[in-house]
Amino acid sequence: MSTEGRPQQNALDRYFKISERGSTLAREVRGGFATFFAMAYIIVLNPIILGSAKDMYGHQLDNGQLVTATAVTAAFTTLLMGVIGNVPIALAAGLGVNSVVALQLAPRMSWPDAMGMVVLAGFVVMLLVATGLRERVMNAVPFGLRKAISIGIGLFVMLVGLVDSGFVTRMPDAAGTTVPVQLGNGGHLLGWPVLIFVLGVLLTLALIVRKVAGAILISIVVMTVLAVIVNAVADIPSWGLTTPKWPGNPVSSPDFSLVGQVSLFGGFEKVGVLTGVLFVFTVLLSCFFDAMGTIMGVSDEAKLTDAEGQMPGINKVLFVDGVAVAAGGASSSSATTAFVESTAGVGEGARTGFASVVTGALFAVALFLTPIATMVPSQAATPALIAVGFLILSGSITKIDWADFTIAIPAFVTMLMMPFTYSITNGIGMGFITFSLLRLAAGRGREVPVAMYVVSAVFAFYYLMPALGLT
Description:
GO molecular function, one term: purine nucleobase transmembrane transporter activity
Order of helices and strands: HHHHEHHHHEEHHHHHEHHHHHHHH
Number of domains: 1
Distance between the termini: 69 Å
Keywords: Membrane, Transmembrane, Transmembrane helix, Transport
Subcellular location: Endomembrane system
Number of strands: 4
Strand content: under 5%
Shape: globular
Main location: membrane
Largest sheet: 2 strands, antiparallel
Protein name: MFS transporter
């Protein structure tokens, strides 16, 4: 039997601990592809959000340059997370944070000033990791709340999938109703795109039930092909952000002009020291806890945590996340953070950083093949989020002590506030505050770690900032 190539494979296996974590190279590759397809929309969406805003001088960022900045930063940081952090977590420009940058920071200063504040927030995150404070905060979270964060993320990604696919839509203000969302369009499921999503969900779940290897990736590929055929035959007017159509010119040239266009302290001259600090704090808080929740949820689902719910080597992961925040600002693509869509790769079987290497490599390829990378419609990719949401929920719901109301109620608040406020950070913040207050009310205040009290106070201040006139 030939042994040609075996030493290289063994070295790869040892470095990423593929066999040790019960995975295979094939699973890691499938997981990397699944995660990429589930989050490739960010290459299109982030430029739309940032490119639609103007800074205080009326300047707008170029869409083509933003595409390059978004893809190159996602590629670099995801590769870094794979090689250094060795976890199946992909990173890209954070939704929510990019809106803060576009709507709160940029109108009060120049774009380089705004991105400089993002870089500063990344430096603070790295400082918190270096001092051990970030790990202490994560370790202070009780086991029940950790599981609730995982469940909340599961519910959140399910809602993201339903909304992005068009299966659930926002109720227009003109309707004059307090009901915020509705089924499809006007309460009805209409059109081929929604049908593609429904068929994708059914196919994904059927493959999972039958324990077919590569269920999620198979579904994404099959539904993309079907969507391309349907679009060619029926000429669908709108699929949302991405139209499933083979591009006339699949190759595009990246434009790196925005990379490095940063002014670290220029924003403080425009808005003052106090307001500038509060801006950095706002970006920091969102990046810190969004990433924390995602890292905890994904690592738990990937079985990378110990009996206490803590992940060995977490500091490396947290430090890379801090680097990612700063890198996003440095490239002008806004703060980069861990993506909940990484659960799609975990659902495919990914357990190591090699899956992130694959995802990062695909983002690098997308720099030159963006038209192809963005031809997968959300209706073909989002069924993965529905399936993964269920898998997370079913694996964690029974591990919470529902008999202890001081943990059950905060867990309930955490898992519901994430989808209902469309924010991982809000779910964590409200859960932490509720936990600290209920333990105090029950006379069990000494059982609450000091770090939990500090973080709860920080969140309370954050929520009170508008009332105090600090925003």
